[in-house]
Amino acid sequence: MVNEVTIVVSDDNEKNSKSNDREMKEKHVESKIDHNGEKDNDHETEVNIQNHKKSKIDRIFVSQFTNDYVVTYSKEDNSIVGWSIKGQPQPYEFYKLDELLNKLNEPSYEIKSFSLYKKKLSLCYREEDGSYKQCLIDLKSKQFYELEHSYSNDVHGQYSIGFLPDDDDDDCPKCKKETHGHLILVSLYDHKIYKYCLKNMPKNATTLKYSEIYDIKIPKSLNDQFKYKFCSIYQKKLFLFFQYHKTTILQFDLLTMNLERQYNSPLDLDSRYSSDSRYEFTTVIMNKDKTLLATEISYSTYIFSMENGRLITKYSLGGLFSVGSTPIEFVTLKNGFEGLIVHSVHYGMVSQYVFIDPYYPYRNLRDPGKDNIINDTIDDNDVITNLNRKLSIDDDGNVCIKNGLDESEFHQILNNTTYHKIYNSSTFNEIRSMLKETVEKMEKMEIDRVAPTDIEFEDGHIIFKNNDECDTIHFVMNNPIVPNNIVPFVNPYTFSYKLINNKQNLVLINVEQIEIFTRNQGSINGITCQYQWNNDEWKNTYKKFRSKNRRYDKNFINEHYRKLINKILKNEFNNSNSSIPLPKLSLELHDITNNNPLVENIINDTEALSKFRKDMLDNKINYQQMKAITTSIVDDKELFPKFGSEILKMAIKNNYSDIVKKVIDKIIESIQINSENRGYVELANPSQTNCSYMMTLLPFISSNFLELSKKYPDFATKYISYTSIILSPYCDFIRNSTNTSLHSYSNVYIKKSNPVNNYFKPISSLWTRSKTDQSSTGQQGVTQTISFIVPFPRICVYKNQKNNGSKKKDRNDNHHEIEKINHETDEIEKINYETENNDDHPLNIWNEFLYNPKSILFCNIDSNHFYNWWNFAAIIDFKWRAFGRIYYFLIWFLYIVYYICYTLASILEQNSITDVQRKSLFIISITFGSIFLIFEILQCLWDYKTYFKDPWNYFDVGAYSLPIAASFCWIINKSQSPWLIAISIILSNFRLLLFFRVFKSCGIYFAIILGVAKTVYPFLVVLAFIILGYAQAFLFILRSTNVNDANDPWNLATRYYFANSNEIINNTTTLVQPPNSNTNLFNWFPTSLFAVYKIITGDSGSLSPWTFQDNPLMTFLLFTFTFFTVIYLLNLFIGLLNIAIEDYNKEEEFLLQKAQIIMEIELFYMFPWWKHDKEWFPDWIYYDMPVTEVRKLINAIDNDKTVFNYYLPVISTDLRNLVALVDEIKEEQKNKFIKQLINELQINQKIQFLQTRVENLQISLQDQQVCAQIIQQLEALKQQLINTQNQQTDVQDQQTNVRMRLFFLELNKLDQQIKQIDLQFKQMNLQMNLQNQQMNQQEGL
């Protein structure tokens, strides 16, 4: 294969210069020792090297980090030789690969991949039996080590090896913090990353043991979505490839093992037809600045931006007939242009090396052009470095270094656009010195206008002229091709001028501002002002200057401008600054055109962008600057991913609504563009159909969502609505799943292996196997699902998590990223990354978001509930599955223990258990109750307002505190208070019941209970005041005020009289039932309230002692109370309850309740370091939904069967194709197809009619005119057939391809029939001509 003979290399000489110097010193010392004491060994090595050079050199191994040392390999000699290529290449180390020979001492192995660092070479090779093995060869000590790990047979592309340099790792547990290197082995066979320490390697051992192991965690639901897995290491980056029809690439940092970027290649023809057969090691190349990534996917070269994940271009020379299109190396030419060498092979052609522009949007089957083919420059055994140096083997077997590509051959692809950078310390110091000189002249009263002069500038010269009210600046070309029609600049009076930056820029200081000009051939002035600056005081001084006089006033200048410039030197241009301030921009219509070159110069200067970012975060720029610069940045696909998050953050903070709207709309636009990507279609412009770019922009919303939802809820609602259903980048087919409802899972992540888990691995594997067997036997539970992605990345990640993980990276990378100006963009991105995750806050975005208004959280509600907030339901489902249920059931179990102990100790009789046993149960109850109560106190201290707003918390406190108090009472007094026991038992039982809230069947009812109570609370207040009023009224008229009055309880008590058999009452003897407090409930106000409450329930027995006839006022009060309260208000209350129940009998109420429960677990029951677990708090969350549910939703949207509250979700074309909603499209195409068939039948009928006329036509002279008419009709039918074919070509679709071809065959048959009719007419004409000739002959006779 191509990647077996072509080597990917990189040049980082400055980075490793110190280590290389140290190696050279060691090498010279070793050579002296060898020369003095080991001449025999030296002679033997020299002979072996000569034999190696005489044999065929198959490969040159070059390091990814430095090109000072290379290794040549000869399979014929079965040896390798190390070469130092500093200066003239010289061979030094020789090693015979005897360990790789088979039993017959033959080199039957095949090297598949390699990695070289200093004098250590690691190889991945395949043996005769198809097994893959890896080894490490230390050429310095001549040691061979076999790498210890799990091996596999016949597994292609499942291994990758690489090195971590000395200065990139300082945290090895084996070597503490001493500097050393590491060897990395990635094995996708067992999903492991093995890390080998290269310091103090064993001398006499043949196996190198790993020092650390990391697990590559791939969720099962995600693993089922791709067919192939590949891996590749380039320098400090690990790339994992997951492929079926689409290809997803995950980029990990090998130092922190964190996921940095995700790249996605869209579904196209090549990936569809070649992914099933492409099964090899994957080549990955990065450019020098680590901004571009090139890799081979399905026989094509894909180039991505490493800064934002955007797919830039795709190159394939042969299209479907391509055998391979492998990126070789990014090469930088002397003029700064960086191109990519690609090795392309396709059927019917020899292999070709092509040099392409990595930013050009190539198409498949594109001819690269003869000028781009470099077969004469490079062959399969050569190596081209990124500094355009060519390493090859000469005829004597020596490594030779030559110049690489000839730059003169690539003028047509070179980018000659240059920008003169002015935001640097050099420009700042020059202007500062000019300001100082100006002040000194003012102090000496020597300041004056610039005299007329002529200055050489670029390809011409600048002429200064003085007028009465201004100065003019005129650029004149030296040798103009056309007459010089350049328009001069009109400027205010100029104090000083100077040429800076190698005379490429002209600086002017005038009465209005500071200006910097540069040469511009496309400008009507010949030069362009690329910088203008003044502050408010300068602007006011200039207005005062113009208002007083229009001519130059030396006294005014000395009086006002001297103070002004001194202040500027102390503030904007003081010694602490290193760059000139950003230009002052205006949004006035007449100034917008002047802003363009100023803004363009900023966005093309990395130092200017860095200053803009710093000033923006410090609130040192005004709205005009923010508006003008951010507008250009947002429209730039490379800059927007770098600055978009901070622009949105500061725009929200400063209430710049138009900038917020532009950023939101740009992100939504990327979603809409991605949704229009059609699968199986060649990519004409990959940057417009880019899932990676979209996923890079989505975190901008997540990181600023809280502030966005508070200040701009409409924009937040718009984003939530549009992103309701986004197809997962992994998903390109419908898969079968045992999950019958929503099922969520995380992305791929890397986690340090836990030795404890390895002990339980056999048990877990048996459990997994049993579940697999059950799922395979129970096919009735299989459901077809589609995968989606939650468009809120890092919403569950705690803000201080990544700060901890990135400290080490920032510490190690800091000195590399600021060494060169070229790495300024990396520095900007690093600072941006730190700022976003620099707040140590106990909450993450999701937990804070739960306290926002419910209308924001569940805004996109459709009328028929086809869409039930899948994104937020997926977040809750993931948290519950990952850790929520484990914690919750453990808490539940502990509460059950607490509940049983307290209940048994309180209820059991004295003779059932002993006092010792009862005391033990109470002590256990106190212990568990105190633990639960401590967590409640922590919640209250965390946010007491939120805590007291939740009614369930009152039940929790009562369920814990009252049993503790009752238990202490018994322990101290050996007795219990009955009321305390009763209330505590009730609250404990109710708290136990609350644990069922997490189950949907019960949780909805609890949500209804609480929600309805909140809704009808105002009504209950009204009812309470009515009851209070009537209780006072009844108390006033029915209480006893005097002894023995009508309302005295003794007079209201029940009396019994004696009667004989004749019913004659004996009034002399009376039995009176002694009254009690219940005889007249209206004697005391609390009992009066209770009596009125009983009347509401229908019990009016409290009024039975009084007669209605004797107490009309009581009767009236009773009538009004029962009518307005019992009849009217209670029925109204029932109606309100029904309405409230409908409002809260919804799934979102249950989800919100469950989410708050999980949040409490995170905040108060979870250890802080567990909150940093990637498995529980991932960056991205995916979820599966049954196809039937998705189909119902999309059908309802398309057919207007449901209405969303706000915006309709964006539904991608790929999603429609996946859920088979093309059935409707097929139906439309079917109708069109039927119409076309009807047209065909009509044409057939006309043709048959004409054929019948032709057959019945008598051949005569009179019939010639009729035949001509028939011929015209046939020609019209031909044209109609052609038009029909064109229409059918326009409506042709992939799904109806076969049927349309059959239809075209039928049309061709009709065309043949018409041709036959034409032939018959021609024959008829011949016969008629013969008859005419015969008739003429007869007439002549």
UniProtKB/TrEMBL annotation:
UniProt main location, coarse: membrane
Subcellular location: Membrane
Annotated spans, Disordered: 1-45
One GO term (biological process): calcium ion import across plasma membrane
Membrane topology per record: Multi-pass membrane protein
Ranges that cross the membrane: 886-908, 920-942, 954-972, 1004-1031, 1116-1141
InterPro entries per record: Ion_trans_dom, TRPV
Alphabetical UniProt keywords: Coiled coil, Membrane, Repeat, Transmembrane, Transmembrane helix
Pfam families, A to Z: Ion_trans (PF00520)
Basic and acidic residues compositional bias, start-end: 12-45
Coiled coil segments of this chain: 1267-1327
GO molecular function, one term: monoatomic ion channel activity
Cellular component terms per the entry's GO annotation: plasma membrane
Ion transport domain span: 887-1148
Designated name of the protein: Ion transport domain-containing protein
Protein's organism: Rhizophagus clarus
